[in-house]
Inverse folding.
């Protein structure tokens, strides 16, 4: 039953992670720290360049693409499935609108975007991820349809060696609100950089609210309270929040 105020509790995990959190997940060594710094540097360099996918990945592909508009903003909500037999991460993703004549307008192809506004975090073999991207515009050509395309080659050399990293979350949401409060808890020794939080709500088969947030750093053993601004308005009973680790090595 929907209530005027809802407190949702759960655990955010890298999709397909182990069911039990290991307290030593992300154990820090000098080598690990050097690898993490190298990865973050590579992601920052990649974000300085435009991202435009023109060749689709046959194994990691969108299964649905939807948009939610309101308040001069549009949120793209893309469900991506990894049909392969191994984890993947850091694949580029392009979203935009396709007109009736087949021409496309890319909305996240600009340089200097946050890295994960044009890339996917890790997706386990045989699992799916709901990725959200918000753009400050809702001008859409008549009869245009949203599209999403995932690239074939990772943009950064991420290593997926510790896929049991789990981040705890506690979600506070008031029905009818345009934001959601998320309390994050990183009990591991693996710091998270450009940590991803995706929120979305559906009514039947239609998305009615969505939003995303990039957190610059969620330190090892630290907690953080953040607010995710939503496009559209949903109900607490339908709200889902995914908090996806970006450092799994």
């Amino acid at each position: 039953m929907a209530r005027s105020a809802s407190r949702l509790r759960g655990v955010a995990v890298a999709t397909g992670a182990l069911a039990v959190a290991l307290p030593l997940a992300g154990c820090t060594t000098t080598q690990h720290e050097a690898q993490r710094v190298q990865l973050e540097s590579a992601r920052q360099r990649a974000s300085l360049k435009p991202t435009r996918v023109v060749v689709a990945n046959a194994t990691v592909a969108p299964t649905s693409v939807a948009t939610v508009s309101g308040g001069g903003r549009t949120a793209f909500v893309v469900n991506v499935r990894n049909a392969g037999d191994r984890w993947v991460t850091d694949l580029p993703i392009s979203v935009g609108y396709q007109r009736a004549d087949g021409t496309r307008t890319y909305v996240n192809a600009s340089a200097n975007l946050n890295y994960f506004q044009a890339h996917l975090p890790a997706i386990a073999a045989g699992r799916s991820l709901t990725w959200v991207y918000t753009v400050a515009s809702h001008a859409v050509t008549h009869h245009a349809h949203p599209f999403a395309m995932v690239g074939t080659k990772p943009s950064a050399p991420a290593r997926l060696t510790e896929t049991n990293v789990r981040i705890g979350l506690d979600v506070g949401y008031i029905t009818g609100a345009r934001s959601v409060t998320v309390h994050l808890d990183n009990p591991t020794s693996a710091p998270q950089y450009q940590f991803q939080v995706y929120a979305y709500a559906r009514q039947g088969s239609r998305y009615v609210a969505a939003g995303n947030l990039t957190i610059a750093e969620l330190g090892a053993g630290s907690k953080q309270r953040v607010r995710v601004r939503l496009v559209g308005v949903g109900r607490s009973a339908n709200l889902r929040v995914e908090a996806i680790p970006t450092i799994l090595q």
